[in-house]
Write a structure and sequence with these properties.
This protein is mostly helical and about 80 residues long. The protein has helices at about 1-25, 35-65. The protein has 2 helices and no strands.
Length: about 80
């Protein structure tokens, strides 16, 4: 029940964002974009996707390989005697 409610709310937010984007896109009118502008737009989209996917890969890699685990402190004095004792 809770999952369905969360999914419904998220889909409503997505729908509202898409409707707003379509409204803004169509209300601006015709704005010419040069070839350099389109190239920059495409390169920025590709770059953003590469960075986002790369960061997600690093997140999963660090999580699965144990880098995110808290440190384990060995407090056994017999195994590690103090040097000044």
């Amino acid at each position: 029940m809770k999952t369905t409610l969360v999914l419904t709310v998220l889909l409503a937010f997505l729908g509202a964002a898409v409707l707003w984007a379509v409204y803004v896109w169509t209300s601006v009118g015709y704005v010419p974009i040069s070839g350099n502008g389109i190239t920059a737009l495409v390169l920025m989209i590709v770059f953003s996707l590469i960075i986002g996917c790369g960061l997600m890969v690093l997140l999963f890699y660090s999580s699965r390989s144990g880098y995110d685990e808290p440190p384990e402190i060995d407090t056994d004095p017999e195994q590690h005697p103090r040097p000044d004792a």
